[in-house]
């Protein structure tokens, strides 16, 4: 990313001037991930870091629900997203009215909501979860049945690991739903001895073919602990590029499904965000209060 040196230098200067911190998701491009991010991580880490930072401004290099979560946790701080059209197919798959209808159909059953949702949907929920803590969150409630929204695949992957009965919604991540068991089998045939690490937003049939499944941070942690000679990360394109730089001895097979929403965030966009202090993320106070309860309840589970 040396070609981006000038833009990177400008962004670093602007960060100091604005007292800003850049939180970047693991799916951001390498020039953002390695060049300008102060903190990188999965959705859970970004939520925790949003609480921990004492910077005046948080720039969220990721999608809108991540910036909203940072704002919900920091009502008094300015949270910027470089492109406010950076959405998510999961967040778009469910509304607060859908949650109310689910509750009416399943009275008394708690609603566990993936953070990949709008603030309104979080506000209508009992507790949030991420792919990194979903099993713990479900089992923390001490109930025999939960409603888990909106990712139907994540819910089924968790259901396979717990005795808690899980009522699902049929949202899906447009990146992970495209992977198939045949993709994995072909990869194993073409790359002898490859270790396959999948994200739990993939269909259960794909996860069943993998050696390990976990959040993006857990995928990186698995590679770090096991140091397999050859690995395939079954997830968004930029993950392998970002992770490979830290493991020169590992050969990365690079299956590539791209998230168009994550890719709306660019270095010029981040520079503009810091220059113009936009797009500022806002959440109405009553929604933020209720959503914060669900997110903080999740964060209290270690
Ligand atoms: P995690 O990084 O929390 O695993 O989430 C993956 C994802 O798809 C975020 O959009
Ligand atoms: Fe949403 Fe999937 Fe893109 Fe993540 S990768 S932002 S879950 S569409």
TrEMBL record:
User: Its GO biological process terms?
Assistant: 'de novo' NAD+ biosynthetic process from L-aspartate
Look up keyword Cytoplasm and say if it applies.
yes
Task: Spell out the GO cellular component terms annotated for this protein, sorted alphabetically and separated by semicolons.
Answer: cytosol
Q: Which Gene3D superfamilies match?
A: NadA-like
The UniProt annotation places iminosuccinate binding at 25, 43, 114-116, 131, 199-201, 216
| Pathway(s) served | Cofactor biosynthesis; NAD(+) biosynthesis; quinolinate from iminoaspartate: step 1/1
Q: Name one Pfam family in it.
A: NadA
Q: Does the keyword Magnesium apply?
A: no
Annotated GO molecular function terms are: 4 iron, 4 sulfur cluster binding; metal ion binding; quinolinate synthetase A activity
Alphabetically list the UniProt keywords: 4Fe-4S, Cytoplasm, Iron, Iron-sulfur, Metal-binding, Pyridine nucleotide biosynthesis, Transferase
Q: Which residues cross the membrane?
A: none
Q: Where in the cell is it found?
A: Cytoplasm
EC number of the protein: 2.5.1.72
The residues that hold [4Fe-4S] cluster are 88, 173, 259
The source's superkingdom equals Bacteria
Cite the cofactor comment: Binds 1 [4Fe-4S] cluster per subunit.
Q: What class of enzyme is it?
A: transferase
* Reactions catalysed, as given in the entry: iminosuccinate + dihydroxyacetone phosphate = quinolinate + phosphate + 2 H2O + H(+)
Cofactors that this protein relies on: [4Fe-4S] cluster
Q: Which InterPro entries match?
A: NadA, NadA_sf, Quinolinate_synth_type2
Question: Which PANTHER family does the record cross-reference, listed alphabetically?
Answer: QUINOLINATE SYNTHASE, CHLOROPLASTIC (PTHR30573:SF0), QUINOLINATE SYNTHETASE A (PTHR30573)
Name the family the entry cites. Answer: Belongs to the quinolinate synthase family. Type 2 subfamily.
Per its database record, what is this protein's job? Catalyzes the condensation of iminoaspartate with dihydroxyacetone phosphate to form quinolinate.
This chain belongs to the protein called Quinolinate synthase
